[in-house]
Amino acid sequence: MPEASVLFLRACLMVLALPVYLLSFLGIWEPFCRKIFFPYFLEWLSVIHEKKVMKKKQELFRNLPDFTGPSGQLRLLEIGTGCGANFQYYPPGCKVTCTDINPHFQEALSRTMSKNQHIHYERFLVAAGEDLHQVASGSVDAVICTLVLCSVQDVNGTLKEVLRVLRPGGAFYFLEHVAADRSSWKYFWQQVCYPTWKLVFAGCCLTRELWKNLEEARFSELKLQHISVPLPGTPIKPHIIGFAVK
């Protein structure tokens, strides 16, 4: 019965989103989404999300300076930088390499950079999380990834790249929305929304149990906490937050 209900409600949601499905069928939606809709949506969402998680992020990134390498300057790599919502939390003088698979975020990114001149921007790379070949192995002190692992093609492949580019003793910081408890109504609605949400929001997956990927990755230490972010009317309230050490 629950499976039948999920399928029925999925169909109802698909009917409501029929114009998007039609545009997708015609090959119009994806380029429009990447270039115009998703950068605009993410910048808007970031403002709302930041208000809900600011204290959590301040606490999360407080120990970033502890991972400064032998060079004496903290080298950061951010995967899926988007519009640069995390810049305000980075310590002064650190060197930041920004990456994103979508080059159309650079306009919003430039605006955020101008507001955060306490950090040094090294370069922007158009790159997927699973393929950071432009970044040398063991070359960064910390990797930051927030609200990105939900939409990468290969979570385990991305974590392997994180481990490759980190120096020994470096840290991976994360804040990601995840699947709710499978016995909960939240998970039921995540299942209902899944296909349409993924199409509309550039491949974002609602039901990934990302804590399992992190637990199975080859980190020497993992500090992970499950939290709920109050985002009324959305299926992305359950989150995980923490850091892992190579």
Keywords:
single chain, 246 residues, alpha/beta, Rossmann fold, seven-stranded mixed sheet, 7 helices, globular
Can you give a write-up of this model?
The chain crosses the membrane at residues 7-29. This is MET7A protein. The structure is a single chain. The chain has a seven-stranded mixed beta sheet with strand order 3-2-1-4-5-7-6, with helices on both faces. It has one domain (1-114, 137-245): Vaccinia Virus protein VP39 (Rossmann fold), CATH 3.40.50.150. The N and C termini lie far apart (45 Å). Helices cover 40% and strands 22% of the residues. 34% of the residues are buried. The mean pLDDT is 93. The protein is built from seven helices and seven strands, in the order αααββαββαβααββ.
Q: Tell me the total number of β-strands.
A: 7
CATH class: Alpha Beta
Shape: globular
CATH homologous superfamily heading? Vaccinia Virus protein VP39
CATH architecture label: 3-Layer(aba) Sandwich
User: What order do the SSEs take from the amino end to the carboxyl end, as H and E?
Assistant: HHHEEHEEHEHHEE
Largest sheet descriptor? 7 strands, mixed
**Overall number of domains:** 1
Q: Can you give the mean pLDDT?
A: 93
Number of contiguous helices = 7
**How much strand?**
15-25%
- Catalogue the unreliable spans: none
Terminal-residue CA separation: 45 Å
CATH topology: Rossmann fold
**Spatial arrangement of strands, main beta sheet:** 3-2-1-4-5-7-6
**Class computed from helices, strands and strand pairing:** alpha/beta
Q: Nearest-angstrom radius of gyration? A: 18 Å
Helix content: 40-55%
